[in-house]
# Entry
Amino acid sequence: MKPTAHHVAILVYDGVKLLDVAGPAEVFEEANRLGADYRVHLLSPTGARVTSSIGIRVAVDGTAAAQQAPGTLVLPGGDVYPRTPVSRELVEATRSLALGAGRVAAVCTGAFILGAAGLLDGKRATTHWKVAHTLAARHPKTRVEPDAIYVRDGTFYTSAGVSAGIDLALALVEEDHGPDLTREVARALVVYVQRSGGQSQFSAPLQGPAPKSPALRQVVDLVLADPSGRHSLTELAGHLHMSPRHLTRLFRDELSTTPARYVESIRFDMAKSLLDQGHTATQTALLAGFPSYESLRRVFVREVSMSPAAYQRRFRTTRRDDSGQRPHRRADGPRPEQPPAGRGQCAVRASAGEPGL
# Structure
């Protein structure tokens, strides 16, 4: 039986990120080759063609106002957000299309467009890890989940940065056509149908702002200078000539964490950097100040849902030999797990209680 046509409207604008448009569109087109019937329409607020973030001009099929209610509305992100306010015409076009849409999906910083339109109030959402804190500050009625690859809240979907739009589109295809077709789409596009871990595996070391308090900045300097040193609460308080209780209060008030957890976060960031440089997991544990490989592994599993070996395999290099394989690396620590095989469930690091996906 011929599938029912499903109309997908992708709303584009000047400064849109091209991959946020092309990634989901390719997923829908690949699904069509396997029996789906997605009709993808590129729209702009005025019907004029737009210029992407890399200067490529994008032609559109029409205006948002002229489009009938789509089955799916996709809002791609762009480098212009959150640096600049969302334009009034883009907000109005978004509201108009979302009003009758079967579901609404925002890729990357497209969440800022939904937020500006008031469509994320009272909902859970995610966006690119670099600007998740900005989304939360700008839209306090939205519960931002910064580590999720994508989040579903009712008929609203938001995803992490750039390539996560592909993850999100795969989830939408699975919702419509089931796991078997979705698995074939993922294989054709040479992507995981379910990605391991959350966004924190992609964040660069020590990206956060330096502490404002001179005492806390001194703690950072102490740990970075000697990560394997003794950095208990008592030791740190002694270095700073203050009571452990006062130091704990400083950490809680300024950084919303404890001294022990903050020291661990510095060591964790350093460990990621050491693995990126090619150190073995055992060497990394020693150099970053962890008492053993096992303690390092536990932190990695908790923070990025993968072992140090798996993290290094994924992020150390894209170089491959002539056979198309990555260069052999000496095993270190427990044998690394295999990359995830295709599975029907597309949801990745969505919060507990996530329905249906």
Q: What stands out?
A: The two ends are 25 Å apart (CA to CA). Residues 203-207, 317-357 have pLDDT under 50 and may be disordered.
